[in-house]
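testing teh design pipeline on a random one, pls ignore if ur not involved
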Protein backbone atom coordinates (compact mmCIF):
# COMPACT_ATOMS: atom_id res chain seq x y z
CA UNK A 1 0.00 0.00 0.00
CA UNK A 2 1.33 3.44 -0.89
CA UNK A 3 0.73 6.88 0.64
CA UNK A 4 0.02 9.90 -1.53
CA UNK A 5 1.80 13.05 -0.32
CA UNK A 6 0.59 16.00 -2.40
CA UNK A 7 1.15 14.16 -5.66
CA UNK A 8 0.60 15.77 -9.03
CA UNK A 9 -2.99 14.59 -9.13
CA UNK A 10 -3.66 14.75 -5.37
CA UNK A 11 -5.65 12.10 -3.56
CA UNK A 12 -8.57 10.18 -5.02
CA UNK A 13 -11.23 7.77 -3.87
CA UNK A 14 -12.57 4.67 -5.55
CA UNK A 15 -11.23 2.30 -8.20
CA UNK A 16 -8.92 3.50 -10.97
CA UNK A 17 -7.56 0.71 -13.14
CA UNK A 18 -5.68 -1.75 -10.95
CA UNK A 19 -5.62 0.45 -7.82
CA UNK A 20 -8.08 1.73 -5.23
CA UNK A 21 -7.81 5.16 -3.62
CA UNK A 22 -8.98 5.98 -0.08
CA UNK A 23 -8.21 8.33 2.79
CA UNK A 24 -8.09 8.19 6.58
CA UNK A 25 -7.47 11.15 8.91
CA UNK A 26 -6.57 13.39 5.95
CA UNK A 27 -3.96 10.91 4.70
CA UNK A 28 -4.50 9.58 1.17
CA UNK A 29 -3.71 5.96 0.37
CA UNK A 30 -3.57 3.79 -2.73
CA UNK A 31 -3.54 0.01 -2.78
CA UNK A 32 -3.69 -2.68 -5.41
CA UNK A 33 -6.82 -4.68 -6.09
CA UNK A 34 -7.19 -7.89 -4.09
CA UNK A 35 -5.83 -10.96 -5.85
CA UNK A 36 -7.19 -14.38 -5.02
CA UNK A 37 -4.56 -16.54 -3.35
CA UNK A 38 -3.48 -19.55 -5.35
CA UNK A 39 -1.20 -20.99 -2.65
CA UNK A 40 -2.36 -22.34 0.72
CA UNK A 41 -1.36 -20.34 3.80
CA UNK A 42 1.98 -21.22 5.32
CA UNK A 43 2.19 -22.54 8.88
CA UNK A 44 3.48 -19.17 10.07
CA UNK A 45 0.53 -17.41 8.44
CA UNK A 46 -1.91 -19.84 10.06
CA UNK A 47 -0.31 -19.18 13.45
CA UNK A 48 -0.67 -15.42 13.01
CA UNK A 49 -4.26 -15.75 11.82
CA UNK A 50 -5.20 -17.82 14.86
CA UNK A 51 -3.52 -15.36 17.22
CA UNK A 52 -5.41 -12.55 15.52
CA UNK A 53 -8.76 -14.34 15.95
CA UNK A 54 -8.06 -15.19 19.59
CA UNK A 55 -7.16 -11.64 20.58
CA UNK A 56 -9.62 -9.69 18.43
CA UNK A 57 -12.53 -11.84 19.65
CA UNK A 58 -11.76 -10.48 23.12
CA UNK A 59 -10.98 -6.88 22.17
CA UNK A 60 -13.79 -6.02 19.76
CA UNK A 61 -16.65 -6.03 22.34
CA UNK A 62 -14.73 -3.61 24.60
CA UNK A 63 -13.74 -1.13 21.90
CA UNK A 64 -15.48 1.66 23.86
CA UNK A 65 -12.95 1.13 26.68
CA UNK A 66 -10.03 0.85 24.28
CA UNK A 67 -10.99 4.18 22.70
CA UNK A 68 -10.11 5.69 26.08
CA UNK A 69 -7.37 3.33 27.23
CA UNK A 70 -5.39 3.44 23.98
CA UNK A 71 -6.88 6.60 22.50
CA UNK A 72 -3.62 8.56 22.70
CA UNK A 73 -1.38 5.88 21.19
CA UNK A 74 0.00 6.99 17.82
CA UNK A 75 -3.49 8.01 16.71
CA UNK A 76 -2.28 9.51 13.44
CA UNK A 77 -1.32 6.05 12.17
CA UNK A 78 -3.41 3.45 14.00
CA UNK A 79 -6.83 3.23 15.60
CA UNK A 80 -7.07 2.63 19.38
CA UNK A 81 -8.21 -0.96 18.89
CA UNK A 82 -5.25 -1.65 16.61
CA UNK A 83 -2.90 -0.06 19.14
CA UNK A 84 -4.42 -2.31 21.83
CA UNK A 85 -4.03 -5.33 19.56
CA UNK A 86 -0.35 -4.64 18.88
CA UNK A 87 0.31 -4.01 22.57
CA UNK A 88 -1.41 -7.21 23.76
CA UNK A 89 -0.18 -9.44 20.96
CA UNK A 90 3.31 -9.35 22.47
CA UNK A 91 2.30 -10.35 25.98
CA UNK A 92 -1.22 -11.69 26.38
CA UNK A 93 -1.37 -14.85 24.23
CA UNK A 94 -0.12 -18.21 25.44
CA UNK A 95 -0.21 -21.77 24.19
CA UNK A 96 0.75 -23.34 20.90
CA UNK A 97 -1.04 -23.43 17.56
CA UNK A 98 -3.90 -24.11 17.20
CA UNK A 99 -4.68 -24.02 20.93
CA UNK A 100 -3.97 -20.39 21.77
CA UNK A 101 -5.63 -18.74 24.76
CA UNK A 102 -5.44 -15.42 26.56
CA UNK A 103 -3.34 -14.91 29.65
CA UNK A 104 -5.86 -12.61 31.34
CA UNK A 105 -3.39 -11.44 33.97
CA UNK A 106 -1.30 -9.93 31.17
CA UNK A 107 -4.14 -8.36 29.17
CA UNK A 108 -3.98 -4.54 29.13
CA UNK A 109 -7.12 -2.44 28.68
CA UNK A 110 -5.18 0.84 28.86
CA UNK A 111 -1.61 2.09 28.92
CA UNK A 112 -0.46 5.53 30.02
CA UNK A 113 1.32 7.66 32.59
CA UNK A 114 -1.52 8.84 34.83
CA UNK A 115 -0.90 7.78 38.43
CA UNK A 116 -3.11 4.86 39.47
CA UNK A 117 -5.43 4.42 42.41
CA UNK A 118 -3.16 2.91 45.06
CA UNK A 119 -4.52 -0.04 47.00
CA UNK A 120 -7.18 -1.77 44.93
CA UNK A 121 -9.75 -4.45 45.65
CA UNK A 122 -12.69 -6.32 44.19
CA UNK A 123 -15.30 -8.37 46.04
CA UNK A 124 -18.41 -10.30 45.10
CA UNK A 125 -21.25 -10.34 47.62
CA UNK A 126 -24.98 -10.92 47.37
CA UNK A 127 -25.06 -10.71 43.59
CA UNK A 128 -22.91 -7.56 43.34
CA UNK A 129 -19.35 -6.90 42.25
CA UNK A 130 -17.72 -4.10 44.26
CA UNK A 131 -14.46 -2.38 43.27
CA UNK A 132 -12.53 -0.22 45.73
CA UNK A 133 -9.50 2.10 45.46
CA UNK A 134 -7.62 4.82 47.33
CA UNK A 135 -9.10 8.32 47.18
CA UNK A 136 -5.87 10.25 47.78
CA UNK A 137 -4.98 13.02 45.32
CA UNK A 138 -1.68 14.75 44.61
CA UNK A 139 -0.81 18.01 42.92
CA UNK A 140 2.70 16.68 42.27
CA UNK A 141 1.36 13.65 40.38
CA UNK A 142 -1.52 15.67 38.89
CA UNK A 143 -4.20 13.35 40.25
CA UNK A 144 -7.56 14.83 41.19
CA UNK A 145 -10.81 13.79 42.77
CA UNK A 146 -12.69 14.04 39.48
CA UNK A 147 -10.40 11.57 37.68
CA UNK A 148 -12.60 8.90 36.10
CA UNK A 149 -12.43 5.24 37.16
CA UNK A 150 -13.35 2.43 34.74
CA UNK A 151 -13.96 -1.16 35.82
CA UNK A 152 -14.44 -4.25 33.70
CA UNK A 153 -15.29 -7.90 34.34
CA UNK A 154 -15.16 -10.74 31.82
CA UNK A 155 -16.97 -14.06 32.18
CA UNK A 156 -15.03 -16.52 29.98
CA UNK A 157 -17.57 -19.36 30.21
CA UNK A 158 -20.37 -17.10 28.96
CA UNK A 159 -18.06 -14.94 26.83
CA UNK A 160 -19.65 -11.78 28.23
CA UNK A 161 -18.35 -8.52 29.66
CA UNK A 162 -19.79 -6.52 32.56
CA UNK A 163 -19.25 -2.99 33.73
CA UNK A 164 -21.03 0.05 35.14
CA UNK A 165 -23.22 2.33 32.98
CA UNK A 166 -20.93 5.25 33.85
CA UNK A 167 -17.41 5.50 35.28
CA UNK A 168 -16.83 6.34 38.93
CA UNK A 169 -14.47 9.03 40.20
CA UNK A 170 -11.27 8.85 42.19
CA UNK A 171 -12.99 10.70 45.05
CA UNK A 172 -15.74 8.04 45.30
CA UNK A 173 -13.38 5.24 46.34
CA UNK A 174 -15.90 2.55 45.38
CA UNK A 175 -18.20 1.46 42.59
CA UNK A 176 -20.43 -1.59 42.25
CA UNK A 177 -22.95 -3.20 39.94
CA UNK A 178 -25.39 -6.08 40.05
CA UNK A 179 -24.36 -9.25 38.19
CA UNK A 180 -27.12 -10.61 35.94
CA UNK A 181 -28.69 -13.85 37.18
CA UNK A 182 -27.45 -15.92 34.24
CA UNK A 183 -23.85 -14.88 35.02
CA UNK A 184 -23.87 -15.70 38.72
CA UNK A 185 -21.91 -18.94 38.27
CA UNK A 186 -18.29 -19.67 37.54
CA UNK A 187 -15.84 -16.78 37.76
CA UNK A 188 -14.91 -13.47 36.17
CA UNK A 189 -11.61 -11.75 35.41
CA UNK A 190 -11.45 -8.12 36.51
CA UNK A 191 -9.57 -4.93 35.55
CA UNK A 192 -9.51 -1.27 36.54
CA UNK A 193 -7.95 1.88 35.03
CA UNK A 194 -8.31 5.65 35.32
CA UNK A 195 -8.36 8.70 33.09
CA UNK A 196 -8.42 12.40 33.80
CA UNK A 197 -11.70 14.24 33.25
CA UNK A 198 -10.79 15.26 29.70
CA UNK A 199 -9.63 11.70 28.85
CA UNK A 200 -6.30 13.02 27.59
CA UNK A 201 -4.29 11.06 30.18
CA UNK A 202 -4.85 7.46 31.28
CA UNK A 203 -3.26 5.07 33.74
CA UNK A 204 -2.01 1.59 33.05
CA UNK A 205 -4.82 -0.88 33.60
CA UNK A 206 -4.48 -3.20 36.59
CA UNK A 207 -5.62 -6.81 36.54
CA UNK A 208 -7.40 -7.39 39.86
CA UNK A 209 -7.64 -11.14 39.56
CA UNK A 210 -10.24 -13.83 39.12
CA UNK A 211 -13.34 -13.56 41.28
CA UNK A 212 -15.54 -16.57 42.05
CA UNK A 213 -19.28 -15.93 41.62
CA UNK A 214 -20.74 -19.07 43.20
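output:
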Amino acid sequence: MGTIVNGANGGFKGKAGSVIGSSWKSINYIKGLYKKRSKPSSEQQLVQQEKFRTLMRFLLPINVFLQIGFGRKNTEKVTPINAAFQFNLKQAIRGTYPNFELDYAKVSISDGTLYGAGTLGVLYTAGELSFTWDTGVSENFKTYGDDLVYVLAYHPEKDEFMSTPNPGTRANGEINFIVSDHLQTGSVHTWIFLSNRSKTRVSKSVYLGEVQLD
